[in-house]
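Hey, can you fold this one?
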Amino acid sequence: MYDLHRLGWNSFQQLCLTIAREVLGQTVQSFLDSNDAGRDGAFAGSWTAAHGQQISGKFVIQCKFSSRPGHSLAKSDIADELPKVRKLVAAGLCDVYVLMTNAGLSGSQESQILAEFLGAGAKYVLIYGSTWIEDQIKGNTKLRMLVPRVYGLGDLSQILDERAYAQARAVLESLREDLAKVVITDSYRKAVRALDEHGFVLLIGEPAAGKTTIASMLAMAAADKWKSSVLKLADPAKVVERWNVDEPSQFFWVDDAFGVTQYESPLVHGWNHSLAQVKAMLRQGAKIVMTSRDYIYNRARQDLKESAFPLLGESQVVIDVHELSALERRQILYNHLKLGKQNDDFRSRIKSHLEFMASHARFIPETARRIADPFFTKDLYIGEYHLGQFVEKREQLLIEVIQGLDVHSKAALGLIYMRKDHLESPISLQGSEPQALEQLGSTLGECITALGALKGSLVAHVLADDQPVWRFKHPTIGDAYAATLAFSPDLLGIFLSGSSTENLLAQVTCGNVGVEKAVVVSKALFPTMIGRLREFSGSSKYKVGWMSSWDARWTLHRFLATRCSKEFLAMYLLDDPDLLKRVAEPGLSLSFSPEVKLAIRLHGLGLLPEEYRKKFTEKVATYAIEGEDLRALKDTALEGVFTAQEFAELVQTVRTDLLPRLAEVRHEVQTNHDSSESPDEHMQGIVESISTLKERFGDDADALKIIEREAGLAQQWIAEAEPPEPKVSPRQLGVVEPSEGQHGTRSIFDDIDEGDA
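Sure. Predicted structure:
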């Protein structure tokens, strides 16, 4: 059932000791291999064996690992152990000898080996072969969690509950290859605790730090222990759409929740609008895991309503790849190489350098994946200097790999990039993509062939939102492809012409405005970009006309506000002078209005004419005076669009006009409550407004009296209107201890070049 021969000697020993602790219930002391005298582990006391016999004394555990699949244990395999047993018995250290092996064991073989160890002086001998070990793994979910690599070494349909497997098959099967290589790290243990405590975890880290690996381990553990249906989705709308209130065991996995390689504001906008439903899902027992690159999250949090969803802060697990222990690094490198595509000769030649690579300051898990794949090492010289460069210059080397591809492979990668890492399969070209492929010197047929050849190295064929898609094997490959665009104006021009405008707005900046990982469009291509923006009138995400046009306008205005230089904006205003009229009339929810951000940006650059500045400030002031949106009183950037006199007059008018009718405003909000919306979510706007008033008029005793009274009444109404919390049985993964421990001075890499033959 399990390919235990692929574990390696160190991981197999740790599996055996974990079995002893978790299955046999023994507190096991492990020993260093340099002086173990034939003991991989030991414990003392009494133990009741499976057949009911009570056994007491000093126990010795010895693990016998074989890298040969289907190997059967023979007397010759244990010949070296017999003298050690005699010494241990003579020293009074061995009453019971426990042999664990991943080799097969027939009845006659077991009898012969048993007799040999009894003859060496042991009072009792217990021998557990591969079948027994596999049975323990199959029957113990806690054991599988502690040694999650076994998920990738067996048949998931036999490991998991039939219903859970059927529900999550498409997602889980695609994880097997990666799960076979996982190592339990401190970050994973923190993530388990966060998920247990909150039902929600946000994994944050630099690119290639292992966020997705941890999320996949959590998904597998949830499917296994809780029989959860696992749903891997891309955006907040899909999460809410797929939530089933009658199925409390759902597990939602959202990779790159706020953007894949760059910050994508529409995703954050979607999360803000879905927070009420997300909180309801968690209350009903759903579990949610999100991942995000650190720099993307740092940008996203400026727009996220963290006050409405404090778990965003409380459930963060920051994954710092530099915090990987020396042992974790070595085990990650070992697992990838042992289970990778390199032949024995390559592994033999690189063996003496692996300790050096694992200890390199710039080593990351993605380094291990690449060194294990011949695709990335075909021109690599095996020597310390060149291997050091392989680790050190990981980004540049990947760019060079992409630049060295044939035209069809480059075009295939370009097609994935133009679709923003989501190329639906089977592939159907859209818009200007046929012309773009022609300019790249390729065809759809050649791209499909190239994708097949690149599968597993640079690209992956996976299921996303229940749709088969082609994606980059790792987001860093998308980063590298973007870098190649920056080196070639001609290639960038093809990309601008072939990509959908919607995708372009999430990938480029017009001029260098400091957006990390963005493709910078130079001045020479500004006219091309303006032409693409001119034709952008609808979003492909919506079939309803008004939603499609609203989202397109929202996305465009956000792009202009955050991703365009002064020179580009000046050029764009000449092409679209009506933009100023739209900016001057922002809608409510000023915190999330791109028109507000654009007005602030244009004013700061001296591009907002006085006529439109005054219209804008008058509109914003009206919202504040009416009590509809008080953003102007707390946002210093927004305040900067007002003159000093205008702002002073606004503050005074709010004091004289709004405060006396604050109770009326609060009561009107309460009466508009829809029972489908949670009371605290419904009242969030007025609660925030009251808080803003308190900050602004905190030194005015009369004003403060009014404000505090309304704050108390608002909280009282929320408490009275809040429905009782649903009774959900707590589901916890439990404490996860390290499965990969240091096991002496013997190198983990000792058997790296031993094949399966």
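The chain has five domains: 4-139, 151-323, 326-392, 393-499, 617-720. Let me know if you want another pass with a different chain boundary.
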